[in-house]
Amino acid sequence: QAREEKLVVTHADAKSRTVYELNAEPAAEAYARAVGVAVEELDRKVFALRPMGVRIGGHYFVRSVQRVNADRSLTFYCAVETGIVMTAMEPGSLLESVRK
User: Fold this and answer.
1) 13: which strand partners?
2) pLDDT given for residue 58 in this prediction
3) Do 20 and 12 touch, CB atoms closer than 8 A?
4) How far is Cα 12 from Cα 81, in angstroms, rounded to an integer?
5) What's the longest Cα–Cα distance across the chain?
6) Rounded to an integer, what distance in angstroms lies between the CA atom of residue 19 and that of residue 9?
7) How far apart are the first and last CA of the chain?
8) Average pLDDT, integer, range 46-58
9) Using CA atoms, how far apart are residues 98 and 81, in angstroms rounded to an integer?
10) Which of 49, 37, 41 is closest to 92 using CA atoms?
């Protein structure tokens, strides 16, 4: 389920799947704020429960974070390019999503 927070990838390396900046600030800081946790709390559980989504034609496609790097960049499991807009996601009701 999409949240309100939109994050624009302002600096990334698609080849290494690393996002250095979201909304022109360190990626981990912007992501942590968007999902409501401290940077120090970012871990696999947070990444699994609060992925990012890219909206294409009315549908969201998940972009999962793999890890936080020492420079506060984020490495994703798939390529993420500069300029795309990502939306913070949160778990929703499976029953509700099936009804839609």
Assistant:
1) 18
2) 84
3) yes
4) 6
5) 42
6) 7
7) 12
8) 90
9) 31
10) 49
Give me 42's structure tokens. Answer: 């970012």
pLDDT averaged over the chain? Answer: 88
pLDDT of residue 43: 96
Give SS3 for 95.
Answer: helix
What Rg do the C-alpha atoms of the chain give, in angstroms?
13
- Residue 89, pLDDT score: 83
The span from the CA of 15 to the CA of 81, in Å, is 9
For the CA atoms of 54, 72, 77, 82, the dihedral, rounded to the nearest 10 degrees, stands at 40
Residue 48 tokens, joined: 């699994």
The residues, ordered by sequence, that sit 6+ positions from 84 with a Cβ below 8 Å of its Cβ are: 8, 9, 54
List the one residue out of 34, 40, 38, 25 whose CA is nearest residue 73.
Answer: 25
CA distance 27 to 72: 6
Q: What is the pLDDT of residues 20-50, one digit of tens each?
A: 999 999 999 999 999 899 999 999 999 998 8
